[in-house]
Amino acid sequence: MVKDSMQTLLAVVLTVLMIAAPAAWTPALWAQDQQTPPPDQTPDSKKTPPPDPKVANPPNPNDLPDPDELMPPDARQKPADQPADQPAPQPGQSAPAPGPGGANPPQGQKHVQAPISVTTTNVLVPVTVKDSAGNIVGDLRKEDFRLFQDGTEVPIGFFSSDAYPLSAVILLDNDLSTKPAEQVQKSIESISAAFGPNDEAAIMAYDEYPNMLQDFTFNNDALFAKLKHTTIGSSMAVDDEGPMTSGPVINGQSQETGVHPRWHGREATKCLDDAVYAAAKALAPRGRNRRKIIFLVADGTNSRHNKVAFETVVQLLLKSDILVYTISVGNALLKHETSRLVKYPSETGGDSYFASKERDLDRVYSTLTEEARNEYTIAFVPKPNKTPEGYHPIEVRIERPGLHVLAREGYFDQSLQP
C-alpha cells in the first residue's frame, strides 16, 4: 500500500518537472546560440520588408554628387584640416599659409601674414606736353594734370615723369619716289644713334607686303650695320622727275618705248595699314614697363586693298599701349596723302613730323625718340561704364595755360590689363 503511494507521488513529481523544465533551460540555450530564436520568438515572415535594391546594388561613388555642392554656401562643410578657431576660406581667398613642415601654427601662436596682392585693371596713358614753340615741357607734377573718362573726371592712380626704355619698330616705306628715297637712304644710318643701351629696336620695310629686316636687338652696332646695308626701294614719279621719257626696264635694259612702267596716276599698291598692323603685332608682347613705339618713315601713300581695316589697326595699337610716330617725306603734304600719317599718332598719343630735306631727317630722328622716351606716364582705374563698342574716350588736361597735350584719345574694354 505504501509502496503504491510512493510510486504515485514520484510520478506526479516527474510530471511537474517535465512541464517546468523548458522555461528553465530554453533561455540559457538561446543565449548561447543567437542565430536560432526561441520557438515562441520567431519573427513573422509576413512583417519582414523585402531587400532594398539600392543596398543590394550600390551606385558607383564617382557618380555621386559632392554633398557640399548640394548645400547653400553658408552651410557648406568646413575643410577637414581647417582649425576650429579659423573661418574657412571664402571664394576668392586663399587658405592660411602653412607653418614650418607644412602644418598650420598651433592655437595661440601668432601666424605670420603673407603679403596681400590686389589685382586690378588700369589704363596706361603716356602724355607729351609742349609749349607754344614746340619744346617739351618736363617740369610738371601730378597736380597739374586732370583726366577724364567718358566726359567724367577720374582720379589719377599713378604718375611718373621718369624716362622709359624704348621698344621700337622702325617701319620704312620701301617704295618712295626717287628724291625722297635718296634722302632717306643717306640719313638712315643716323636712326641708330637715337637709341640708347637700354632700348631695343627692330627694322621692317613695306610696299605691298611688310617684311621684317631685323628682329629686336639691344645691340646698337648690329642695328647700325643693318640700316647701313638696307636699300630703300624707289620708283620714278612725275612729281619728282618731270615728263616721263624713259621706257620700261626688262632684265635691267631700258626698252625706250616712251611709256614708263610706273606711269602717272597708277593705282597705289603700298598697304600702309597692313604694315602698321604687322609692326603692332611684333610689338604687342613687349612689357608694359617699356615705351612701345612705331617709328614710321613714309610718304603716306596707301592702297585701297589693305587686308586689315584702319579701325582694326587702331584697336590693336590701343590694346597694346603702342604709340605711332610718323615722319612724312616727299610730296605727301602737296598730294594730301598725310591722312594716315596724322591719324595714327593722333589716336595713339604719338606725334607727326614732316621732313623735306636730309638734314631735317637727321634732326627729327633724335627729337622723336627723346620725345617718346621722356613722356609723362599716367595710369588710372576706369569707372565701369558699358558702351556698345566697348570704346571709351579719354582726355588729359593741363592746369597751366599755353601748353599743348599729346595723349591717346581713348581705350577699349578689352585692353584693360592687370
Structural class: alpha/beta
- What are the segments in which pLDDT stays under 50 over at least 5 consecutive residues? 21-120, 236-265
CATH superfamily of one domain: von Willebrand factor, type A domain
The CATH topology annotation of one domain reads as Rossmann fold
Cα-atom Rg, whole angstroms? Answer: 44 Å
Count of individual beta strands: 18
Kindly report how far apart the N and C termini lie: 123 Å
* CATH class assignment of one domain: Alpha Beta
**Helical content band:** 25-40%
Instruction: Name the CATH architecture of one domain.
Output: 3-Layer(aba) Sandwich
Provide a count of the helices.
9
Percent strand equals 15-25%
Largest beta sheet: strand ordering: 8-7-5-12-13-14
Order of helices and strands: HHEEEEEEHEEHEHEEHEHEHEHEEEE
Largest sheet: 6 strands, mixed
Averaged pLDDT, please? Answer: 73
Tell me, briefly, the overall form. elongated
Structure description:
The chain is built from nine helices and 18 strands. The chain has 418 residues and is α/β, with parallel strands linked by helices. The protein has a domain at 164-373: von Willebrand factor, type A domain (Rossmann fold), CATH 3.40.50.410. The protein has a six-stranded mixed sheet with strand order 8-7-5-12-13-14, with helices on both faces. Strands 4-15-1-17 form a four-stranded antiparallel sheet. A four-stranded antiparallel sheet has the order 3-2-16-18. Helix 3 crosses helix 9 and helix 6 packs parallel to helix 7. Residues 21-120 and 236-265 have low confidence and may be disordered.
